[in-house]
Design brief:
By secondary structure, the chain is an all-alpha fold. The chain contains 5 helices and no strands. InterPro entries: Brnchd-chn_aa_trnsp_AzlD (IPR008407).
């Protein structure tokens, strides 16, 4: 069994590293707030990520009526919900729900 001093030293190192890693991002907040690059990425990344996720999801969809109809309908519902509510969570949950429901009903 390690000595008490060794355990306290290890816990101190763990505490300092954990605190430092959690505090480090806040040191960069002030210089980054005025960055035009980050404003651009904040405006365009959500759309890019949704496009990548959509393509990744639809790549494995079979090109048969039984596979394409539920996927196309769910995609249309997701886009419609997003245009209507502008809420990604509502769009994802609604589209996923329609897709699962159509898969169960269709086939």
């Amino acid at each position: 069994m390690p000595s008490t001093g060794y355990l306290l030293g290890a816990l101190t190192v763990i505490l300092v590293v954990t605190f430092g890693l959690r505090a480090l991002p806040f040191a960069f907040v002030a210089p980054v707030r005025s960055s035009s690059l980050l404003r651009f990425l904040g405006a365009h990344m959500p759309v890019g990520i949704m496009v990548i996720l959509t393509v990744y999801t639809l790549v494995g969809t079979p090109l048969t009526v039984a596979g394409a109809v539920p996927a196309a309908t769910a995609l249309a519902v997701s886009v419609g919900l997003h245009l209507w509510r502008s809420n990604a969570l509502v769009s994802i949950i609604g589209g996923t729900g329609v897709y699962v429901l159509l898969l169960q009903l269709w086939g």
